[in-house]
Design a protein that fits this description.
mainly alpha, 6 helices, 80% helix, elongated
Length: 209
């Protein structure tokens, strides 16, 4: 599990020729880091007299971001879990019609599972971005640059995850289901990247004065 590994150890595993972890896990980790950075900003805001009017919002943000961080970390592991059976399915025999039908059925099931995980990453990352918008507006001004970094990490998570949706839906025979998933992903990437860019732009403007 990723949470039991050192950063260096996980990075070495990512760098290896092993199929997992890969881009999906890295995307989830970016989302987890975005949530963690958001918590840092909230922690630097709570308990400060200057920000007492937003104390409750910051406490709520801390709670929500902590859950999102844990969920994103879990999704990094889940991405690896769903890839292994999918990779195995590609090697199933397909010499006879019966074997081909069985393989296709298994492939559809596992492609769907492999598509849903990065889609969940995108949904969780969108939730992180909602909170980052609040932190940019009301959080500690001393940590506003960290909100900008978090927004960029969240953007990377979205852009990485969407590719992992598409690479799996592309191979699905059930095109109606594939397009349903693609449509969800497209809406999330469009709204999410716009939101991340807007947060980042506002942060830059504040830093530049």
């Amino acid at each position: 599990m990723i949470e039991k590994q050192t950063i260096g150890g996980w990075g070495d595993a990512l760098a290896s020729k092993a199929p997992v972890p890969g881009g999906g896990g890295a995307s989830a980790l970016c989302g987890s880091l975005a949530a963690a950075l958001g918590q840092m900003v909230a922690n630097l805001t709570v308990g400060k007299k200057r920000y007492e009017d937003v104390e409750e919002e910051m406490q709520q943000s801390l709670f929500a971001l902590n859950i999102l961080q844990l969920e994103m970390t879990a999704l990094a592991d889940k991405d690896a879990e769903v890839f292994a059976p999918l990779a195995a399915a590609y090697g199933m025999p397909s010499s006879t019609k019966e074997e081909q039908e069985e393989k296709q059925g298994v492939m559809e099931e596992r492609l769907l599972a492999a598509s849903l995980v990065p889609l969940q990453m995108m949904e969780k990352t969108s939730a992180v971005l909602d909170i980052l918008g609040l932190l940019e507006e009301k959080g500690s001004k001393m940590a506003v640059s960290d909100v900008g970094v978090a927004a960029q990490m969240a953007r990377a998570a979205l852009n990485g995850a969407v590719m992992n949706v598409y690479i799996n839906t592309k191979s699905m025979k059930n095109r109606d289901k594939a397009e349903e998933l693609n449509d969800k992903a497209e809406k999330l990437i469009e709204a999410g990247t716009k939101q991340a860019d807007e947060i980042y732009s506002r942060v830059l403007n504040k830093l530049r004065g």
